[in-house]
Amino acid sequence: MIRRSRALRALVVLLPAFALAATAPAPAPAPKLAVVISVDGLGWARLEGYRPWFVAGLKRLLDEGHVERAARYQHLNTETGPGHASLGTGAPPRVTGIVANSWFEAGERGSLHTVHCTDQRDPAAPAGTARVIPGPGNLRVPTLGDRLVEAKKGARVVSLSAKDRGAIFLAGREQAHSVYWYDKETGRFVSSTAYDPPSAIRLAVRRFNETKAGTMLPGRFGLVWKKWSGPFPSPGTKLLPTPVPASIVQRYQYPVHGLGFDHDLSRFGVMPTGDTPGYFGGIYRSPLVDELTADLALALLNDPALELGHGDVPDLLCLSFSGHDPVSHDYGNESEEELDTLRRLDVQLGRLLDALEAGYPKGTFLVALSADHGFPVMPEVAKAIDKTASGGRIDVGKETLDNFKERLNRMLDETLCLDAGVKPVFGMDGWDLFYDRATLPAKSVAGACGAAGRSVTTTDVDRVLPGLVKLVWGAEVEDVLLTSQAASWRETPALSFVKNDFDAQRSGDVILVPRWGVQTSYNPGRGSMHGTHHEYDIHVPLIFWGAGVKAGASDAPSTPYDLAPTVGQWLGVTLPQAIGKALLLPR
Ligand SMILES: [Zn+2]
Q: What is the 3-state secondary structure (H, E, C) of 255-324?
């Protein structure tokens, strides 16, 4: 009797636990692999508009993932460096310090020089020399990857892109990260001494370069970029959304690979932005570079020696697909070349999702996809479609005498009675103007301002510059903000975007606020440029797929700054300096 009652008591004690186990969901599998994907320059409207075209990865992400439909950046300089730093860290440029793709800094004698966002001193350079290499040195806060390897011993971060800034800012500052980008001179994936990856990954990338990249590329990809002939949505599908007809768009394209399909990749010449010419440079400005990036990602995921995502702690794979950005710059975001690039990317992402499902237990991997910025329609095309459309270009081309900076400097010289050789505005990047502090103050010449020899300072330039810009470029520029008067900037809808970019050390002396549809242009009248605070540049996809996340969509406002905290929450990693929030993903 005593025995039985003991057994009964035990049963009674166990029962509630059994009852709970029957109704409570099984514990979520431990995270093994997070994959962060950035599609360079992909705006939300473009992805959603072309949805019927997609048959593979993009289709699955949109159909099966949790889609944040209202994710918008909140900073002005919507460029690749700032966007990737924001995706990597969960914070806007005012926090990351990556305020633009490049800016100007004063050297030893006060003269300004260009600093690319990925420029840093080579740690391997001999003392006393200042060799500059691509690296994360300008990044002011840790990334998701930095926090992951700090919190979980043995975790690895692998980051791949065709652009150094795409790979570097998604990965972060930790030296042990494996960070590789495409080299336009050799067609291979390279890194820098800023990183010291594990030797197994080093070897795997070297093997890939020898067997799949570099001199193997012409044999693998051919010399022409043909229109994608892969699977159509369903045979006979009608009413597929189509790009703006070539008859309109071609007038304004920058034909780096010639006009119209097939595009000859081997005849790529020098860009106004100074890109590397030749076949390998041509691959970079085509969708084929995304296929190459996906090939390397799959080679690393499938390499048994690496066991990515199969260790005791989770790993992070970052992929920035760059091809969409140069294609949109050259041929227009509204062109059939851009659609072709997305259809090809769709297939590459499909390969990646298939590999994750084949290689990892369900629930152990999470994919997060977003973009560093969107893209506008070329202003001439916008007007050809709709005569009432507003917009235009500000010519910032380096070669022309009559570009924005040259013209503004001539007007400043006349107004302030400066010698024609004096150029108060040294440079422009994004929407920031930088004064030449090595030249100012300068002595005035005799004229309308009186006798010669008066000292003209930056304060004098501040006084007259806004009026001159508004006089000549009033149709393009909505506001001119002086950094010296930041404390009294007038509240406008654009001001929070300006402030989210602002870094006292790196921002310019003057910040221009562009009107809707206005873009800076390196090649007057041709090609396209992103980089504003307007809808087409700030509204991007934000999608989470895998890890038990339910299919669905949210129209609640969110930001791409939410990506890193959300993935971090799943990985069990916090990001104290993030401004974005960890989204509660429905499961
Ligand atoms: Zn771009």
A: CCCCCCCCEEHHHCCCCCCCCCCCHHHHHHCCCHHHHHHHHHHHHHHCCCCCCCCCCCCCEEEEEEECCH
How far does residue 573's CA lie from ligand 1's centre (Å)? 31
pLDDT, residue 449, reads 84
Residue 530 per-residue DSSP state: -
Up-side HSE of residue 328: CA atoms within 13 Å toward CB?
A: 25
Question: From the CA of 199, how far away is ligand 1's center (Å)?
Answer: 33
Of 134, 181, 82, which is closest to residue 530 (Cα–Cα)? 82
Taking only the tens place, the pLDDT of each residue in 177-210 is 999 999 999 999 999 999 999 999 999 999 999 9
Beta carbons within 10 angstroms of residue 546's beta carbon: 23
What confidence score (pLDDT) does residue 106 get? Answer: 87
**C-alpha 322 – ligand 1 centre gap (Å):** 9
The Å distance, Cα 304 to ligand 1 centre, comes to 36
Question: Which pLDDT score, from 0 to 100, does residue 27 have?
Answer: 82
CB atoms within 10 A of CB 218: 15
Q: How many Å lie between the centroid of ligand 1 and the Cα of residue 45? A: 17
> How many whole angstroms separate alpha carbon 548 and alpha carbon 31?
11
**How many residues comprise the chain?**
587
Question: Taking 50 as the threshold, does the pLDDT of residue 73 lie above it?
Answer: yes
Q: How many angstroms does the Cα of residue 294 sit away from the middle of ligand 1?
A: 20
Q: How far is ligand 1, taken at its centre, from the CA of residue 326, in Å?
A: 6
For 334, the token pair is 């509204």
Using the CB atoms, write b or e for 464-493: b if 16+ within 10 Å.
ebbebbeeebeebbbbbbbbeeeeebeeee
Dihedral over Cα of 476, 48, 69, 147: its sign: negative
Q: Name residues whose C-beta falls within 8 Å of residue 535's C-beta, 6 or more positions apart in sequence.
A: 45, 72
Tokens 């997060």 belong to 368
Tell me the C-alpha distance between 268 and 277, whole Å: 6
Say which residue, 177 or 420, is predicted with more confidence: 177
| pLDDT class of 23 with cuts at 50, 70, 90 | low
